[in-house]
Predict the structure.
Amino acid sequence: MKNNKIRVAIYCRVAREDDEIIKMQEETLRKFAEEHDYDNVSIYSDNGFSGLNFNRPAFILNSVDIRQEKWYTKSKKGNKQDGKCTA
């Protein structure tokens, strides 16, 4: 049986280290992916990093994966600041 689900990566970030908020972002985006029949492949999380700082470990890793064509698009769900909570 062929899997026709769309593969996605989840990226979460919070400026002040807060495990509860990161967990909530991950749960929200997992649910979003499930509701849209996306196949969640990886979660990238930067806990305690400002959005103004692009030297974030998970952000960099996700950028490398994008260049390796693991993901083809980026869409944003949620918060005001770009890059804070994306699916």
